Amino acid sequence: MAQEHVIDIELAESCVQAFATASGMGCELCGPEGNVTAASGYSCDACSVCSGTGISRQDCKRLHSFTAKASEREDGKYLYECPMGLSCITSAVLDKNGQLCRLTAGPFIMEELQDFRDYDLTGVMGLDPKTADEVMARMGQIPYVEPHQVNAFSQLLVYSAAFLSEVDRKNEDYLARIEEGTVSAWAKANRIDPEMMVKLVNGYIEENYAKDISLLDIAKHAGMTTSYLCRLYKRQCSTTVNAYLTQVRIEKSKAMLSAGVPIAETAKRCGFSDQSYFTKVFRQVEGTTPLRYKKRS
User: Fold this and answer.
1) β-strands 78-81, 87-94: how paired?
2) Does the predicted TM-score (pTM) go above 0.85?
3) In this structure, what DSSP letter does residue 118 have?
């Protein structure tokens, strides 16, 4: 039989309300089964953005339930995107019985609303314009948060979670570990240099272009969300991450075709799913087909 979930409700309500008021983001504390213990502001439990898109509340809850354990592996906090592409931060809380609960801030966005519509909704999710507009009509209460603010608020969330953890609140080793983790996370989070980020991303692409890598893979390697990566990369390079990946693959394929490598093998070695897709992309970029380019070379 599962242990009863026990936590100081009055303290929890005070904590989430203070965090929501200070940050402008919604905040909620959920028990081990995902039940909301305390909430304030426009938190995930109150969010209705996913309504009408085919994404169920259960999809969101399954994702959120994973994040408490994930935060323990990520220096006490876990920054992630919900199925709709909205950002959230979670930190783990232990109740009196040692059960794992989660303290979550969000949802929020780190990009302009129009960029969210054009990139996340119609681009990544593939929503039609009408559905995308319906989603945008529900975005009024979702706050925009600057990336450097997210770094700071995530540290406050970790400290709040440590304070709410009933079992370990008086355990100096636990608090020391939390503080050490947050200091480490703070240092890493604030060392984001745009030029170094570009070198990191481009280096990863140049080493892995032959593999079936996704934007999510690249973002994980860079240690940031896909939306934040895309905004920062485009601002720094005036092009997109996917455009650079395509550029690298096409340049590598041209060298192989010139060296006499068969078209099908070139497509495979340059990370394209099949020869027809390779031909389509090659023609879009070079204005000719791989076969004609090979003959001309």
Assistant:
1) antiparallel
2) no
3) I
Quote the tokens at residue 181: 């983790």
d(CA 112, CA 290): 39
Please name the residues in contact with 112: beta carbons below 8 A apart, sequence gap of 6 or more: 144
Q: What is the pLDDT of residues 109-128, one digit of tens each?
A: 988 888 888 888 887 778 88
Domain boundaries, the chain: 9-189, 193-297
The span from the CA of 288 to the CA of 283, in Å, is 5
- What is the pLDDT, as a whole number, of residue 151? 80
What tokens appear for 133 in the block?
A: 């507009």
270 phi/psi in degrees, rounded to 5: -105, 10
Q: What does the alpha-carbon distance between residue 78 and residue 100 come to, in Å, rounded to a whole number?
A: 15
Q: Which fold has domain 193-297?
A: Arc Repressor Mutant, subunit A (1.10.10)
- Return the structure tokens found at 99: 């059960």
DSSP sequence for 170-210: T-HHHHHHHHHHHHHHHHHHTT--HHHHHHHHHHHHHHHTT
DSSP helix/strand/coil, 268: helix
- Rounded CA separation 123/120 (Å): 5
Tokens 């991303």 locate to 201
Please state the rounded mean pLDDT for residues 85-113.
86
Confidence label for 186 from pLDDT (cuts 50, 70 and 90): very low
* pLDDT at residue 52 in the model: 65
Angle at CA 64, nearest 5°, toward 60 and 68? 175
Question: Mutual orientation of helices 215-222 and 194-208 as an angle, nearest 10°?
Answer: 130
